[in-house]
């Protein structure tokens, strides 16, 4: 007997999340164990309202375009699932003959699937639940990197590279620039901007990441040092950086439904503005700030082809796992080699990924904690990225040559 399947997207989107959705649809259409594939309209919230798309009825043209369409085509949600909602979810699954449950998302999303799959298993309903990884933050356990991270990192690198040239050429006007990227608990995205640097002069000079305690005094000393040496200072920070006592540099006190700190979106301040103000207050230098917020999560023009393909193949692997009735897992990417770059797809228990965040390992930081190590740049990041632009910088004629 054939059963139906359903898929949803949760949390913030990425430039490549729909490639995973496309992979699932494409693979389902090639198999004979699933009858219909439904899509949740706005995640688990839409599911509980029985608001579905019939994805098996999509035209070939729409499926093909979906692979390269940014943001979350199904509509997303950040709903925190409550225990008293689980019986109703089981009833809806039974009503629509759904035995295969896919969600694309981050650690909170993996917690949602894990809880639904566990509840159904404990209450006599055979449900295969598979998680498909997605997060620009790159903070999911047991996967070398997450689909969406590479494209978001590419966006940040290009922004800091180009913004760094702007800062260098405007240093007679603005002495510093602060670029903020998302990253609540993990500094992967901020760290990746180190690849924009191609000389001691070029940006970025300082990178502050959530894993390391932020010091106002050290930041001011570091900034003054680079302004004195190069005439300007380029600073990158993750939105979630904190002082030694755990207070966010952004000064936000707002929490979301998952008890995570909200940065910027709920009317709070931002780490970049706080750093900008402290430098101005100390030195009275004019400076710039650049806060991209959610733009890095939907920039298809800067998406990396390998990221799209890996995202697509994660969707395919999820269906293959479901066909073997292997439930309670998230698809993972395992790096076999960095030179040449080679990966394979694996799986990890949802219980291991749910709610937990993967910080950057200590070996990827420099000794001062205000930049990254050579190992992070050369061994981890470079194999993931396409070639970067090689811009020209003019050299001044020396006085004895005039």
Overview of this structure, please?
The chain is α/β, with parallel strands linked by helices and 402 residues long. It folds into two domains: 3-147 and 303-353, Rossmann fold (3-Layer(aba) Sandwich); 151-300 and 359-384, 3-Layer(aba) Sandwich (Rossmann fold), CATH 3.40.50.460. The protein has twelve helices and eleven strands. The chain has helices at residues 17-28, 43-48, 60-66, 86-95, 107-122, 149-169, 188-192, 216-230, 271-283, 305-323, 350-353, 374-381, and strands spanning 3-9, 34-40, 52-54, 98-105, 128-133, 176-181, 206-208, 233-238, 287-291, 329-338, 341-349. The strands form two sheets. A seven-stranded mixed beta sheet has the order 3-2-1-4-5-10-11, with helices on both faces. Helix 8 (216-230) links the parallel strand 7 (206-208) and strand 8 (233-238). Helix 1 packs across helix 10 (305-323). The termini are far apart.
Order of helices and strands: EHEHEHHEHEHEHEHEHEHEEHH
First-residue to last-residue Cα separation: 86 Å
How many structural domains does the protein architecture include? 2
Bin the helical content: 25-40%
The largest pleated sheet is described as:
7 strands, mixed
Mean pLDDT: 94
- Give the overall form: elongated
Identify the CATH architecture of the largest domain. 3-Layer(aba) Sandwich
Radius of gyration: 23 Å
The fraction of residues assigned to DSSP E strands is 15-25%
Query: What fold name goes in the CATH topology slot of the largest domain?
Result: Rossmann fold
**Largest beta sheet: strand ordering:** 3-2-1-4-5-10-11
Question: Number of DSSP strands?
Answer: 11
Return residue spans where pLDDT drops below 50 for at least 5 consecutive residues.
none
Please give the count of helices: 12
Q: What is the top-level CATH class of the largest domain?
A: Alpha Beta
Alpha-beta content class: alpha/beta
């Amino acid at each position: 007997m054939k059963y139906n399947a359903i898929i949803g997207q949760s949390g913030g989107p990425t430039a490549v999340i729909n490639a995973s959705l496309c992979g699932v649809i494409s693979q389902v259409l090639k198999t004979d164990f699933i009858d219909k594939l439904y899509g949740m309209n706005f995640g688990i919230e839409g599911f509980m309202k029985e608001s579905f798309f019939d994805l098996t009825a999509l035209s070939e043209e729409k499926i093909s375009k979906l692979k390269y369409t940014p943001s979350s085509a199904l509509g997303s949600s950040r709903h925190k699932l409550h225990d008293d909602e689980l019986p109703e979810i089981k009833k809806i699954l039974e009503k629509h003959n759904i035995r295969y449950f896919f969600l694309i998302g981050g650690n909170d999303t993996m917690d949602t699937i894990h809880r639904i799959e566990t509840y159904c298993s404990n209450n006599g309903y055979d449900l295969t639940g598979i998680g498909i990884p997605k997060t620009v933050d790159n903070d999911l356990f047991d996967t070398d990197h997450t689909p969406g991270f590479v494209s978001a990192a590419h966006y940040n690198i290009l922004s800091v590279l180009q913004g760094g040239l702007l800062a260098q050429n405007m240093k007679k006007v603005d002495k510093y620039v602060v670029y903020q990227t998302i990253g609540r608990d993990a500094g992967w995205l901020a760290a990746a901007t180190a690849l924009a640097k191609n000389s001691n002069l070029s940006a970025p000079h300082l990178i502050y990441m959530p894993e390391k305690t932020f010091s106002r005094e050290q930041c001011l000393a570091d900034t003054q040092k680079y302004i004195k040496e190069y005439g300007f200072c380029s600073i990158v920070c993750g939105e979630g950086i904190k002082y030694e006592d755990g207070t966010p540099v952004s000064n936000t006190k707002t929490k979301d439904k998952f008890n995570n700190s909200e940065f910027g979106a709920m009317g709070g301040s931002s780490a970049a503005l706080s750093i900008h103000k402290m430098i101005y207050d100390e030195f009275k230098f004019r400076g710039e700030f650049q806060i991209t917020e959610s733009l890095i999560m939907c920039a298809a023009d800067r998406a990396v082809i390998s990221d799209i393909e890996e995202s697509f193949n994660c969707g395919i692997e999820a269906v293959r796992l479901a066909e073997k009735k292997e439930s309670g897992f998230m698809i993972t990417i395992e790096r076999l080699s960095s030179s040449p770059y080679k990966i394979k797809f694996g799986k990890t228990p949802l219980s291991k990924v749910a709610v937990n965040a993967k910080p950057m390992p200590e070996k990827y930081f420099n000794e001062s904690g205000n930049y990254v190590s050579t190992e992070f740049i050369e061994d981890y990041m470079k194999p993931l990225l396409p070639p970067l632009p090689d811009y020209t910088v003019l050299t001044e004629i020396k006085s004895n040559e005039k």
